[in-house]
Recover the amino acids of this structure.
Protein backbone atom coordinates (compact mmCIF):
# COMPACT_ATOMS: atom_id res chain seq x y z
CA UNK A 1 0.00 0.00 0.00
CA UNK A 2 1.36 3.42 -0.84
CA UNK A 3 0.07 6.92 -0.99
CA UNK A 4 0.11 8.41 -4.46
CA UNK A 5 3.30 10.32 -4.97
CA UNK A 6 4.92 8.83 -1.88
CA UNK A 7 7.02 5.83 -1.01
CA UNK A 8 8.15 2.87 -3.06
CA UNK A 9 10.31 5.00 -5.33
CA UNK A 10 11.84 2.83 -8.02
CA UNK A 11 15.26 4.14 -8.95
CA UNK A 12 15.66 1.59 -11.72
CA UNK A 13 12.24 1.95 -13.27
CA UNK A 14 12.16 -0.33 -16.29
CA UNK A 15 10.02 2.11 -18.20
CA UNK A 16 8.86 1.17 -21.64
CA UNK A 17 10.29 3.12 -24.51
CA UNK A 18 6.79 4.29 -25.43
CA UNK A 19 6.53 6.05 -22.10
CA UNK A 20 10.11 7.31 -22.25
CA UNK A 21 9.19 9.28 -25.31
CA UNK A 22 5.64 10.14 -24.23
CA UNK A 23 6.15 11.06 -20.60
CA UNK A 24 8.67 13.13 -18.73
CA UNK A 25 10.91 11.18 -16.39
CA UNK A 26 12.16 12.63 -13.13
CA UNK A 27 15.55 12.06 -11.48
CA UNK A 28 13.99 9.41 -9.28
CA UNK A 29 13.06 7.29 -12.29
CA UNK A 30 9.34 7.93 -11.84
CA UNK A 31 7.08 9.44 -14.42
CA UNK A 32 6.28 13.07 -13.70
CA UNK A 33 3.84 13.72 -16.47
CA UNK A 34 1.57 11.84 -18.83
CA UNK A 35 0.60 13.44 -22.16
CA UNK A 36 -3.10 13.35 -21.30
CA UNK A 37 -5.34 10.95 -19.48
CA UNK A 38 -7.15 10.12 -22.75
CA UNK A 39 -3.95 9.48 -24.70
CA UNK A 40 -2.67 7.36 -21.85
CA UNK A 41 -5.88 5.30 -21.96
CA UNK A 42 -5.51 4.57 -25.68
CA UNK A 43 -1.86 3.73 -25.31
CA UNK A 44 -2.45 1.41 -22.35
CA UNK A 45 -5.34 -0.28 -24.15
CA UNK A 46 -3.23 -0.98 -27.23
CA UNK A 47 -0.45 -2.45 -25.10
CA UNK A 48 -2.92 -4.66 -23.22
CA UNK A 49 -4.60 -5.93 -26.40
CA UNK A 50 -1.19 -6.93 -27.78
CA UNK A 51 -0.67 -9.19 -24.75
CA UNK A 52 -2.77 -12.20 -25.78
CA UNK A 53 -4.67 -13.38 -22.71
CA UNK A 54 -7.15 -15.66 -24.48
CA UNK A 55 -8.96 -17.86 -21.99
CA UNK A 56 -10.21 -21.13 -23.45
CA UNK A 57 -11.38 -22.40 -20.07
CA UNK A 58 -8.49 -24.81 -19.48
CA UNK A 59 -7.05 -24.66 -15.95
CA UNK A 60 -3.67 -23.30 -16.96
CA UNK A 61 -5.49 -20.78 -19.07
CA UNK A 62 -3.95 -18.06 -21.14
CA UNK A 63 -1.38 -16.94 -18.67
CA UNK A 64 -2.67 -13.57 -17.58
CA UNK A 65 0.72 -13.26 -15.86
CA UNK A 66 2.23 -11.20 -18.69
CA UNK A 67 -0.64 -8.73 -18.60
CA UNK A 68 -0.45 -8.64 -14.80
CA UNK A 69 3.26 -7.88 -14.92
CA UNK A 70 2.57 -5.14 -17.42
CA UNK A 71 -0.05 -3.62 -15.10
CA UNK A 72 2.37 -3.79 -12.18
CA UNK A 73 4.94 -1.91 -14.22
CA UNK A 74 2.41 0.76 -15.21
CA UNK A 75 1.60 1.33 -11.56
CA UNK A 76 5.17 1.19 -10.29
CA UNK A 77 6.40 3.77 -12.75
CA UNK A 78 4.13 6.40 -11.19
CA UNK A 79 5.09 5.45 -7.63
CA UNK A 80 2.48 2.90 -6.54
CA UNK A 81 3.44 -0.35 -4.87
CA UNK A 82 0.96 -2.91 -6.22
CA UNK A 83 0.87 -6.57 -5.26
CA UNK A 84 1.16 -9.29 -7.89
CA UNK A 85 -0.76 -12.36 -6.73
CA UNK A 86 -0.52 -15.68 -8.52
CA UNK A 87 -3.64 -17.74 -7.97
CA UNK A 88 -4.02 -21.42 -8.92
CA UNK A 89 -0.84 -21.59 -11.00
CA UNK A 90 2.15 -19.41 -11.70
CA UNK A 91 0.52 -18.33 -14.95
CA UNK A 92 -2.79 -17.12 -13.50
CA UNK A 93 -2.23 -13.75 -11.86
CA UNK A 94 -4.03 -10.86 -10.27
CA UNK A 95 -2.85 -7.35 -9.36
CA UNK A 96 -4.09 -5.57 -6.25
CA UNK A 97 -3.54 -2.03 -4.99
CA UNK A 98 -5.23 -0.10 -2.20
CA UNK A 99 -5.20 3.68 -2.58
CA UNK A 100 -5.97 5.21 0.81
CA UNK A 101 -8.76 7.77 0.86
CA UNK A 102 -8.78 11.03 2.76
CA UNK A 103 -11.65 9.92 5.02
CA UNK A 104 -10.72 6.67 6.76
CA UNK A 105 -14.14 6.48 8.42
CA UNK A 106 -15.76 5.74 5.05
CA UNK A 107 -16.13 2.31 3.53
CA UNK A 108 -13.91 1.31 0.64
CA UNK A 109 -14.81 1.03 -3.04
CA UNK A 110 -13.58 -1.90 -5.13
CA UNK A 111 -12.66 -1.01 -8.71
CA UNK A 112 -12.12 -4.16 -10.74
CA UNK A 113 -11.33 -5.36 -14.24
CA UNK A 114 -10.48 -8.74 -15.68
CA UNK A 115 -7.31 -9.28 -17.69
CA UNK A 116 -8.39 -12.31 -19.73
CA UNK A 117 -10.31 -12.24 -23.00
CA UNK A 118 -12.21 -14.85 -24.99
CA UNK A 119 -10.27 -16.42 -27.87
CA UNK A 120 -10.39 -14.91 -31.37
CA UNK A 121 -10.08 -16.75 -34.69
CA UNK A 122 -7.84 -14.46 -36.72
CA UNK A 123 -9.14 -15.64 -40.11
CA UNK A 124 -12.64 -14.39 -39.22
CA UNK A 125 -11.44 -10.86 -38.52
CA UNK A 126 -10.86 -7.89 -40.84
CA UNK A 127 -7.69 -7.06 -38.88
CA UNK A 128 -5.33 -9.19 -36.74
CA UNK A 129 -7.16 -9.47 -33.39
CA UNK A 130 -4.08 -8.89 -31.23
CA UNK A 131 -2.44 -6.08 -33.20
CA UNK A 132 -4.42 -3.24 -31.59
CA UNK A 133 -4.57 -1.22 -34.77
CA UNK A 134 -6.23 2.19 -34.77
CA UNK A 135 -8.44 2.49 -37.84
CA UNK A 136 -11.24 5.02 -38.42
CA UNK A 137 -10.62 6.51 -34.97
CA UNK A 138 -11.29 3.16 -33.29
CA UNK A 139 -9.00 0.77 -31.45
CA UNK A 140 -9.50 -2.73 -32.89
CA UNK A 141 -8.72 -5.97 -31.12
CA UNK A 142 -9.86 -8.69 -28.75
CA UNK A 143 -10.63 -7.06 -25.41
CA UNK A 144 -11.38 -3.60 -26.85
CA UNK A 145 -14.78 -3.60 -25.11
CA UNK A 146 -14.49 -6.69 -22.89
CA UNK A 147 -12.77 -5.35 -20.96
CA UNK A 148 -9.31 -4.03 -21.56
CA UNK A 149 -10.96 -0.68 -22.32
CA UNK A 150 -12.08 -0.36 -18.71
CA UNK A 151 -8.78 -1.78 -17.44
CA UNK A 152 -7.01 1.00 -19.31
CA UNK A 153 -9.38 3.68 -18.08
CA UNK A 154 -8.85 2.54 -14.49
CA UNK A 155 -5.08 2.57 -14.95
CA UNK A 156 -5.06 5.97 -16.67
CA UNK A 157 -7.19 7.54 -13.93
CA UNK A 158 -5.12 6.28 -11.03
CA UNK A 159 -1.83 6.98 -12.82
CA UNK A 160 -2.93 10.60 -13.23
CA UNK A 161 -3.82 10.73 -9.54
CA UNK A 162 -0.36 9.55 -8.54
CA UNK A 163 1.32 12.19 -10.69
CA UNK A 164 -1.00 14.88 -9.36
CA UNK A 165 -0.60 13.64 -5.77
CA UNK A 166 -4.37 13.24 -5.51
CA UNK A 167 -6.10 11.09 -2.90
CA UNK A 168 -9.73 10.01 -3.41
CA UNK A 169 -12.37 10.63 -0.73
CA UNK A 170 -12.58 6.96 0.27
CA UNK A 171 -10.22 4.00 0.01
CA UNK A 172 -10.18 2.63 -3.52
CA UNK A 173 -9.14 -1.00 -3.87
CA UNK A 174 -8.02 -1.62 -7.44
CA UNK A 175 -8.09 -5.24 -8.53
CA UNK A 176 -7.26 -6.84 -11.86
CA UNK A 177 -8.35 -10.46 -12.10
CA UNK A 178 -7.65 -13.51 -14.26
CA UNK A 179 -10.19 -16.07 -15.46
CA UNK A 180 -13.37 -14.01 -15.49
CA UNK A 181 -14.29 -15.40 -18.89
CA UNK A 182 -14.35 -18.95 -17.51
CA UNK A 183 -16.28 -18.21 -14.34
CA UNK A 184 -13.51 -16.87 -12.08
CA UNK A 185 -12.51 -20.09 -10.33
CA UNK A 186 -8.85 -19.19 -10.90
CA UNK A 187 -9.56 -15.51 -10.36
CA UNK A 188 -12.19 -13.64 -8.34
CA UNK A 189 -13.55 -16.71 -6.54
CA UNK A 190 -10.01 -17.79 -5.63
CA UNK A 191 -9.24 -14.32 -4.28
CA UNK A 192 -12.40 -14.30 -2.16
CA UNK A 193 -11.49 -17.68 -0.69
CA UNK A 194 -7.78 -17.10 -0.22
CA UNK A 195 -7.23 -13.34 0.13
CA UNK A 196 -10.28 -11.89 1.90
CA UNK A 197 -7.89 -9.34 3.47
CA UNK A 198 -7.82 -7.49 0.13
CA UNK A 199 -11.50 -6.63 0.56
CA UNK A 200 -11.34 -5.26 4.08
CA UNK A 201 -13.87 -2.44 4.53
CA UNK A 202 -15.19 -2.77 0.96
CA UNK A 203 -18.95 -2.32 0.63
CA UNK A 204 -19.36 -1.54 -3.07
CA UNK A 205 -17.71 -2.58 -6.31
CA UNK A 206 -17.55 -1.06 -9.77
CA UNK A 207 -16.59 -3.06 -12.86
CA UNK A 208 -18.11 -4.14 -16.18
CA UNK A 209 -20.64 -4.19 -18.01
CA UNK A 210 -22.58 -0.95 -17.93
CA UNK A 211 -22.38 2.79 -18.39
CA UNK A 212 -22.60 2.65 -22.20
CA UNK A 213 -24.98 4.88 -24.12
CA UNK A 214 -28.05 4.07 -26.11
CA UNK A 215 -29.13 6.99 -28.29
CA UNK A 216 -32.88 7.54 -28.32
CA UNK A 217 -32.67 10.86 -30.15
CA UNK A 218 -30.20 13.71 -30.41
CA UNK A 219 -31.27 15.20 -27.07
CA UNK A 220 -31.67 11.94 -25.15
CA UNK A 221 -29.04 9.32 -24.51
CA UNK A 222 -29.74 6.55 -22.04
CA UNK A 223 -26.75 5.27 -20.10
CA UNK A 224 -27.36 1.75 -18.88
CA UNK A 225 -25.85 1.16 -15.47
CA UNK A 226 -25.72 -2.49 -14.53
CA UNK A 227 -27.43 -3.17 -11.22
CA UNK A 228 -28.41 -6.77 -11.86
CA UNK A 229 -27.19 -9.83 -13.67
CA UNK A 230 -28.54 -13.25 -14.43
CA UNK A 231 -27.38 -16.33 -12.59
CA UNK A 232 -25.52 -19.16 -14.28
CA UNK A 233 -26.45 -22.85 -14.42
CA UNK A 234 -24.13 -24.60 -16.85
CA UNK A 235 -25.31 -28.18 -17.26
CA UNK A 236 -23.96 -31.42 -18.64
CA UNK A 237 -26.54 -33.80 -20.10
CA UNK A 238 -25.78 -37.48 -20.48
CA UNK A 239 -27.95 -40.06 -22.18
CA UNK A 240 -27.37 -43.76 -21.71
CA UNK A 241 -28.41 -46.29 -24.34
CA UNK A 242 -27.54 -49.64 -25.80
CA UNK A 243 -24.30 -49.78 -27.76
CA UNK A 244 -24.27 -51.75 -30.97
CA UNK A 245 -23.64 -52.09 -34.68
CA UNK A 246 -24.76 -49.13 -36.71
CA UNK A 247 -26.46 -51.36 -39.27
CA UNK A 248 -29.00 -52.86 -36.87
CA UNK A 249 -32.25 -51.64 -35.36
CA UNK A 250 -31.65 -49.87 -32.06
CA UNK A 251 -34.53 -48.41 -30.04
CA UNK A 252 -32.21 -47.25 -27.23
CA UNK A 253 -29.84 -45.08 -29.22
CA UNK A 254 -28.07 -42.64 -26.85
CA UNK A 255 -27.37 -40.18 -29.66
CA UNK A 256 -31.03 -40.04 -30.68
CA UNK A 257 -32.19 -39.63 -27.09
CA UNK A 258 -29.77 -36.79 -26.43
CA UNK A 259 -30.49 -35.07 -29.74
CA UNK A 260 -34.23 -35.09 -29.00
CA UNK A 261 -33.62 -33.67 -25.53
CA UNK A 262 -31.38 -30.95 -26.92
CA UNK A 263 -33.96 -30.13 -29.57
CA UNK A 264 -36.68 -29.64 -26.96
CA UNK A 265 -34.39 -27.54 -24.76
CA UNK A 266 -33.20 -25.38 -27.65
CA UNK A 267 -36.76 -24.65 -28.76
CA UNK A 268 -37.94 -23.69 -25.28
CA UNK A 269 -38.90 -20.05 -24.55
CA UNK A 270 -39.63 -19.13 -20.97
CA UNK A 271 -42.15 -16.55 -19.86
CA UNK A 272 -40.99 -13.01 -19.11
CA UNK A 273 -40.02 -12.58 -15.46
CA UNK A 274 -39.16 -9.14 -14.13
CA UNK A 275 -37.23 -8.43 -10.95
CA UNK A 276 -36.87 -4.89 -9.56
CA UNK A 277 -34.12 -3.80 -11.99
CA UNK A 278 -35.81 -5.27 -15.06
CA UNK A 279 -39.13 -3.70 -14.07
CA UNK A 280 -37.54 -0.26 -13.72
CA UNK A 281 -35.59 -0.69 -16.95
CA UNK A 282 -38.72 -1.57 -18.85
CA UNK A 283 -40.63 1.44 -17.56
CA UNK A 284 -37.69 3.76 -18.34
CA UNK A 285 -37.50 2.38 -21.89
CA UNK A 286 -41.25 2.79 -22.36
CA UNK A 287 -41.03 6.38 -21.23
CA UNK A 288 -38.01 7.17 -23.42
CA UNK A 289 -39.61 5.70 -26.54
CA UNK A 290 -43.19 6.80 -25.74
CA UNK A 291 -44.59 3.27 -25.55
CA UNK A 292 -47.76 2.21 -23.72
CA UNK A 293 -46.89 -1.29 -22.58
CA UNK A 294 -49.54 -3.98 -22.98
CA UNK A 295 -49.05 -6.55 -20.24
CA UNK A 296 -45.58 -8.04 -20.29
CA UNK A 297 -45.15 -7.77 -24.03
CA UNK A 298 -41.51 -6.80 -23.95
CA UNK A 299 -41.09 -7.48 -27.67
CA UNK A 300 -43.01 -4.27 -28.26
CA UNK A 301 -40.22 -2.38 -26.48
CA UNK A 302 -37.33 -4.45 -27.77
CA UNK A 303 -38.31 -3.80 -31.37
CA UNK A 304 -37.45 -0.13 -30.82
CA UNK A 305 -33.97 -0.77 -29.51
CA UNK A 306 -32.12 -2.18 -32.51
CA UNK A 307 -29.33 -4.74 -32.00
CA UNK A 308 -28.90 -3.95 -28.29
CA UNK A 309 -32.26 -5.66 -27.72
CA UNK A 310 -30.47 -9.04 -27.76
CA UNK A 311 -28.44 -7.88 -24.78
CA UNK A 312 -31.37 -6.46 -22.87
CA UNK A 313 -34.27 -8.72 -23.81
CA UNK A 314 -32.52 -11.90 -22.75
CA UNK A 315 -32.16 -10.41 -19.26
CA UNK A 316 -35.91 -10.53 -18.78
CA UNK A 317 -36.47 -14.27 -18.96
CA UNK A 318 -34.71 -17.55 -18.20
CA UNK A 319 -32.77 -19.01 -21.12
CA UNK A 320 -31.49 -22.48 -21.99
CA UNK A 321 -29.12 -22.78 -24.93
CA UNK A 322 -27.56 -26.09 -26.04
CA UNK A 323 -23.93 -25.24 -26.79
CA UNK A 324 -21.86 -28.45 -27.00
CA UNK A 325 -22.41 -32.01 -28.21
CA UNK A 326 -20.13 -34.99 -27.93
CA UNK A 327 -21.06 -38.50 -28.98
CA UNK A 328 -19.71 -41.46 -30.88
CA UNK A 329 -16.37 -42.34 -32.40
CA UNK A 330 -17.16 -44.18 -35.65
CA UNK A 331 -19.99 -43.95 -38.12
CA UNK A 332 -21.00 -47.61 -37.86
CA UNK A 333 -20.84 -47.85 -34.07
CA UNK A 334 -23.74 -46.69 -31.87
CA UNK A 335 -22.15 -45.44 -28.65
CA UNK A 336 -23.41 -46.31 -25.19
CA UNK A 337 -23.45 -42.68 -24.03
CA UNK A 338 -23.87 -39.24 -25.50
CA UNK A 339 -23.15 -35.98 -23.71
CA UNK A 340 -24.00 -32.39 -24.34
CA UNK A 341 -23.78 -29.08 -22.53
CA UNK A 342 -26.44 -26.45 -22.02
CA UNK A 343 -25.80 -22.84 -21.04
CA UNK A 344 -28.60 -22.02 -18.62
CA UNK A 345 -29.11 -18.48 -17.30
CA UNK A 346 -31.73 -17.51 -14.78
CA UNK A 347 -33.27 -14.21 -13.72
CA UNK A 348 -33.09 -13.24 -10.03
CA UNK A 349 -35.23 -15.78 -8.17
CA UNK A 350 -35.50 -18.05 -11.20
CA UNK A 351 -32.88 -20.73 -10.53
CA UNK A 352 -35.04 -23.59 -9.33
CA UNK A 353 -37.54 -23.09 -12.10
CA UNK A 354 -34.78 -23.12 -14.74
CA UNK A 355 -33.27 -26.37 -13.52
CA UNK A 356 -36.65 -28.05 -13.12
CA UNK A 357 -37.56 -26.96 -16.65
CA UNK A 358 -34.33 -28.36 -18.07
CA UNK A 359 -34.98 -31.70 -16.34
CA UNK A 360 -38.55 -31.85 -17.59
CA UNK A 361 -37.54 -31.06 -21.18
CA UNK A 362 -34.61 -33.48 -21.12
CA UNK A 363 -36.85 -36.37 -20.09
CA UNK A 364 -36.30 -39.35 -17.83
CA UNK A 365 -33.59 -40.96 -19.98
CA UNK A 366 -31.20 -38.05 -19.79
CA UNK A 367 -29.23 -37.27 -16.67
CA UNK A 368 -28.46 -33.62 -15.84
CA UNK A 369 -25.59 -32.36 -13.72
CA UNK A 370 -25.24 -28.66 -12.92
CA UNK A 371 -21.49 -28.09 -13.24
CA UNK A 372 -21.41 -24.33 -12.69
CA UNK A 373 -24.02 -22.80 -10.43
CA UNK A 374 -23.65 -19.11 -9.65
CA UNK A 375 -26.00 -16.51 -8.23
CA UNK A 376 -28.15 -13.91 -9.92
CA UNK A 377 -27.78 -10.36 -8.61
CA UNK A 378 -30.17 -7.45 -8.25
CA UNK A 379 -29.31 -4.32 -6.24
CA UNK A 380 -31.28 -1.07 -5.81
CA UNK A 381 -30.72 1.74 -8.29
CA UNK A 382 -30.42 4.43 -5.65
CA UNK A 383 -28.04 5.96 -3.14
CA UNK A 384 -25.00 8.24 -3.24
CA UNK A 385 -22.89 6.02 -5.49
CA UNK A 386 -25.58 5.93 -8.16
CA UNK A 387 -26.03 9.70 -7.79
CA UNK A 388 -22.29 10.22 -8.36
CA UNK A 389 -22.47 8.12 -11.53
CA UNK A 390 -25.45 10.11 -12.75
CA UNK A 391 -23.73 13.43 -12.06
CA UNK A 392 -20.46 12.36 -13.68
CA UNK A 393 -22.32 11.34 -16.86
CA UNK A 394 -24.28 14.60 -16.94
CA UNK A 395 -21.15 16.67 -16.57
CA UNK A 396 -19.82 15.26 -19.86
CA UNK A 397 -23.11 14.74 -21.66
CA UNK A 398 -25.96 17.15 -20.85
CA UNK A 399 -28.37 14.79 -22.64
CA UNK A 400 -27.47 11.80 -20.47
CA UNK A 401 -30.18 9.93 -18.61
CA UNK A 402 -28.90 7.11 -16.39
CA UNK A 403 -31.09 4.03 -16.02
CA UNK A 404 -30.51 0.60 -14.46
CA UNK A 405 -30.32 -2.61 -16.44
CA UNK A 406 -29.99 -6.31 -15.91
CA UNK A 407 -27.23 -8.00 -17.87
CA UNK A 408 -27.76 -11.41 -19.39
CA UNK A 409 -24.14 -12.49 -18.81
CA UNK A 410 -22.21 -12.85 -15.57
CA UNK A 411 -19.28 -10.93 -14.11
CA UNK A 412 -16.82 -11.09 -11.22
CA UNK A 413 -19.45 -9.16 -9.21
CA UNK A 414 -20.97 -12.56 -8.42
CA UNK A 415 -17.82 -13.58 -6.53
CA UNK A 416 -17.60 -10.28 -4.67
CA UNK A 417 -21.26 -10.51 -3.68
CA UNK A 418 -20.29 -13.50 -1.52
CA UNK A 419 -18.62 -10.97 0.81
CA UNK A 420 -21.76 -8.84 0.84
CA UNK A 421 -20.31 -6.34 -1.64
CA UNK A 422 -22.86 -4.47 -3.77
CA UNK A 423 -21.74 -4.55 -7.40
CA UNK A 424 -22.37 -2.09 -10.20
CA UNK A 425 -21.37 -2.27 -13.86
CA UNK A 426 -20.09 1.16 -14.83
CA UNK A 427 -17.50 1.33 -17.58
CA UNK A 428 -18.75 4.56 -19.18
CA UNK A 429 -18.68 4.89 -22.96
CA UNK A 430 -20.52 7.37 -25.14
CA UNK A 431 -21.09 5.39 -28.30
CA UNK A 432 -21.98 6.49 -31.82
CA UNK A 433 -25.71 5.80 -32.38
CA UNK A 434 -25.06 3.39 -35.27
CA UNK A 435 -22.45 1.19 -33.57
CA UNK A 436 -23.77 -2.35 -32.90
CA UNK A 437 -22.22 -2.52 -29.45
CA UNK A 438 -23.82 -5.79 -28.35
CA UNK A 439 -22.28 -7.68 -31.28
CA UNK A 440 -18.78 -6.61 -30.25
CA UNK A 441 -18.84 -8.56 -26.96
CA UNK A 442 -17.00 -11.81 -27.71
CA UNK A 443 -17.61 -10.90 -31.36
CA UNK A 444 -15.63 -10.55 -34.54
CA UNK A 445 -13.93 -7.19 -35.17
CA UNK A 446 -14.28 -6.08 -31.54
CA UNK A 447 -13.40 -2.39 -31.40
CA UNK A 448 -13.98 0.77 -29.43
CA UNK A 449 -14.10 4.40 -30.59
CA UNK A 450 -11.28 6.59 -29.31
CA UNK A 451 -13.87 9.29 -28.58
CA UNK A 452 -15.77 6.84 -26.35
CA UNK A 453 -12.61 6.13 -24.37
CA UNK A 454 -11.91 9.83 -24.00
CA UNK A 455 -15.43 10.34 -22.68
CA UNK A 456 -15.25 7.26 -20.46
CA UNK A 457 -12.01 8.04 -18.72
CA UNK A 458 -13.15 11.60 -17.97
CA UNK A 459 -16.45 10.37 -16.51
CA UNK A 460 -14.75 7.61 -14.52
CA UNK A 461 -12.26 10.08 -13.05
CA UNK A 462 -15.02 12.47 -12.05
CA UNK A 463 -17.14 9.70 -10.58
CA UNK A 464 -14.27 8.34 -8.47
CA UNK A 465 -13.43 11.80 -7.16
CA UNK A 466 -17.01 12.34 -5.99
CA UNK A 467 -18.23 8.95 -4.82
ZN1 LIG B 1 -15.92 -9.08 -19.42
Amino acid sequence: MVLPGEGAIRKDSNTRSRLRSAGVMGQDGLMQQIPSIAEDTVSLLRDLIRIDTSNDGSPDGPGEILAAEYVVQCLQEVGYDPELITTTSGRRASVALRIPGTDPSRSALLLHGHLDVVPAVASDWSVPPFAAEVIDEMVWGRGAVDMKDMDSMILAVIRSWAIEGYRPPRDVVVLFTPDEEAGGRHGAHWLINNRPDLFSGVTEAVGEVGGFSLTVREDLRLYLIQTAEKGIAWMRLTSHGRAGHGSMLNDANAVTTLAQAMGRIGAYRSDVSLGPTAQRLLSELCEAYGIELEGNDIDQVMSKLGPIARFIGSGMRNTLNPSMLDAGYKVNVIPEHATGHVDGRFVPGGRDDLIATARRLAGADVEIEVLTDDVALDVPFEGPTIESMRAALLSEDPHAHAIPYLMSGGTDAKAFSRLGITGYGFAPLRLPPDLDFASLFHGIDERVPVSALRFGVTVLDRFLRTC
Q: What stands out?
A: The first strand starts at residue 24 and ends at 25.
